[in-house]
UniProtKB/TrEMBL annotation:
Region annotation Disordered: where it falls in the sequence: 1-40, 448-472, 681-733
Annotated compartments: Nucleus
Protein name: tRNA (cytosine(34)-C(5))-methyltransferase
Keywords from the named record: Methyltransferase, Nucleus, RNA-binding, S-adenosyl-L-methionine, Transferase, tRNA processing, tRNA-binding
Active site, UniProt feature: 328 (nucleophile)
Domain SAM-dependent MTase RsmB/NOP-type: residue ranges: 66-437
Composition-biased stretches (Basic and acidic residues): 24-38, 449-460, 694-714
Source species of the chain: Anopheles darlingi
CDD domains, per the entry: AdoMet_MTases
Top-level taxon of the source organism: Eukaryota
Amino acid sequence: MGKPKHLTNKQNPFAKKKRNNKAKSAEQPEPARREKPYESIVPENESFEAYYKHQQVCDESEWPLFMEHLRSSLPVTFRITGSKAQAKLLLKITKESFFAEYDRAVRELRKDEEGGHVEPPRSLEWYPNELAWQLELSRKDIRRSEPLFRLHNFLISETNSGNISRQEAVSMIPPLVLDVQPHHKVLDMCAAPGSKTAQLIESLHGSDGAKIPSGFVIANDVDNNRCYMLVHQAKRLSSPCFMVTNADSSTFPVLQISQPDGTIAPLKYDRILCDVPCSGDGTMRKNPDIWTKWSLNQANNLHGLQHRILKRGAELLAVGGKLVYSTCSLNPIENEAVLHRLLKQSEGALELSECANLLPSLKYRKGMTYWEPATKDLKYYKTFADVPENQRTVVRPDMFPPSAEEAIEKYHLDRALRILPHHQNTGGFFIALLEKKKSLPWEAAAAEEAAREEEKRKEQTAASSGPPSKKARYMRGFKEDPFVFFEQNEEVFDSIKRFYQLDEAFDAKNFLTRCRVGKKKNIYFCSPAVRDVVQLNEKRIKFINLGVKSFVRCDNRNMQCEFRLASEGLASVNGFIGKQRRVTVDPEDLIKLLSCTDPTKPPEISSLTEGTQENLKNFDSGCCILECQLGDLPMATVGWKGTLSLRAYVDQHDTVHLLRLLGGDLSKFEKNKFQDKLLAEEAADDPEENGATVERKEEADTEEKIRYPTDPDNRNTGCCYRNTKSVHGKPRNRSESLDLFSSQYDTMITRGLFASRHTIVPCRVAQSVARCTSVSMSDRLVHVQRRYASQERNVVKSPFGKVDIPRQNVTEYIFEGYEKYADKPAITCGASKRSYTYGMTYEMIKRMACGLLSQKGCAMRKTDVLGLLLPNIPEFVPALHGGLLAGLTVTFANPLYTPEEVCRQFENAGVTVIVTLPLLLPVAELFKAKVKQYKGTICIGGKHDFEKNIYGFEQFLMENHSSELPEIDCDATAILPYSSGTTGLPKGVELTHYNLVANLAQGSHPQISKYYQPEYANRKETILTIPPYFHIYGLNGILHSVLKSKNHVISIPRIVLVL
């Protein structure tokens, strides 16, 4: 039986409106790309100024200064973190090494400006121990100014090592107000991106002792992708007392925890941070697009959500606990109105506490006690009775202020802090501290209801013939690997405990892995409290991350233990490791170990000081802890003692940090990108320097001899073949790998496999079947350099003369000057006639790049690899160059490969996002099931399906992804094409932007390509492309060459032979 006539879709007004809109959009297609470039945002918004003037957010006399600061760039601020002794030493180094030359560097930067006054670096007076600093420069000033390159390098390096946190000044206040102690149970309800979370973790470990805190921090966010930002942010701090969860904050579940007497009870938190989603108009200084988007509707719409989150936080707070409510908004509807609404409902259970005394010398304005809600067209209302009927769903009764007397004497709204931009040259912020005096009026009833539900669930579980169990909670986002905790009698634990002499008090159950079957590769450590929370609540909430990597499998037949220490987890397990695996080294020896960057030549023990040599006598080989006392600061790092050598296992950022503390030479780690660019330009003018043109030798030796080519910056860019596995997958030994590599190197050079039409071009060939297991790339490069250093160069001279190779990324090089041809067709599908102009193509490329980097999109990072599984279609170009413009590496596979072949290749390349067609989606799904860090599939011709983590290509490009595109290093890897596997498995070839540009520049010589001859300057042709774009010849030799010459490409997705 069908629906009644009045319920059919044809009569549904909403469905009818949707059909009409769809028909209208079909009749009026969206305009092509903008003809003019985007203009700078003008920091003006009449509604914004009118609204806040009416609300009197500041005195009338302060208004010009308030607006002047809002329109200026935000200064750089940072905090020094770490233990007290280490922070004190780093602060001293910062003042002596960087602040001392700050005045000169800034004067040089502003030499063209009038006045010349330079504000010195200023410590934030309200932050303890001079550990927070403000520089009166924007991030853009520091990033793009050569005089400040050392300061820029310092900030980046120390941030990556976790010893500095680059954080906005006002964002540091909420964690300070919470006053977190090591025993506190802390919840950050809306934690991403994580700067405040990191500060909470630092406070938890603030006792500066080796003892692991009994408390913990739970960082939660509703967005699954943003949760991984939290993981990245907190990873620098290496805390075993930290968990990341993925849940809706407004309905955050009540978790369970074990009590000292062994009973299970609901988890109540001592400290809660509610930094809720807001309209963000206090961040206009760093997010100028808010000027164009600001609307009062945003605040009105968010009021309800903010109240629900705050209310849930108050319910989860323990009696006597403290909660901070904060926003980066100036609007009282999002601030005082939300507080008043909850305080009124709590009937005295919550109290707004004074917090200004915790921040001496902080300039602020007291919380507002009167405001007037308004509609988006700025019609203000003093009472709800004045609101017209049609506006009562927008302006709600709870948005209105209390009486003047109640606002101060009953609700104490004046105790909140309002920080305005002109107070101390910061962003705008709102902070309020709530203390829970007693249980909320509705908590008792809610607890009883929860207890009944729990009892009912237990009865259903116990009854075998009872009704089916309740459906499991829906877990959004990616499926996480399991958290598998050790049992007391875990097999691998015995060898670890024996070799490292772990303390008897250490509980094996605090170790965990992320796999249930197979060999344990990484072992993580967490505190007992974290383990208890996870084991009791895995079915109640989705845990994203916890624990610190402490041990890594390192199979070696000469090792007594098959696991070595991981440097990031050393601080957590250091206190449990016995003296047998500790060795004291002198500071000068530690500098020598850290300064060694050649893994093939670790310092020999005989070259160290006598004291260190004495400490290493009768010391067993293998992983160890290197200890060093630097004044009052004890230092420890992971090391490896060989038969005759000693080395430090530290990543580059920590290496730089430790050397900086020890006073070592950092010159080899300093990178002046401005000087590198200048040298590259000079080298491009001198063929003798860059080796781009090679002269023929008059009397060549009978045996051809090759010298290893180097680039102008003395970085290796020669041919290298990286394959350390045999055909059967067994690792070769070191000498066998080197011999194979050297012979293949000879073969490739003498056969001219990497020589273009008239120049020998240096290029790099990547690892083939697997990651390097025995000899690193740098080992091979050094070996080849030595082998050919004494041999003469084989010299070949081009008959066409010199070719200038620009230092550009390949996308900029190909589409340079595209504006002139913006309306000309760039690429057309020969099957469907689908066509894009050069203007449309470049706009799609930029949108693709922003989407790949955006947190709303794929949230890819610089180290990620984009995989293309596509035939020759027009969308291949924006997919490829969108990845390249985002600074990613792009690889591609033959779409006719079997699913297993595609998965093997993409897994080998490290692909995290795939771009493909609906027909090939099953292959992408199969690959997704095989890898852990997969971030999504972009389907050309498909639609969004977030449950399967699929993005429709068209929708993906149309969404407003706001991302800052990175500066691209020309020597960075651009593409990773694979061979066809004729002689074994396919092998990956690593090609840089410079390699691709060099090849195109040579092919653009007028005597090689007619399209660069004068008579062809204005003649554009249509060129059919048949070779596949996933092949390097079809890509760079044809597609890129045609696009560079601004001709018209016809792509053929499929060829059918008709006999």
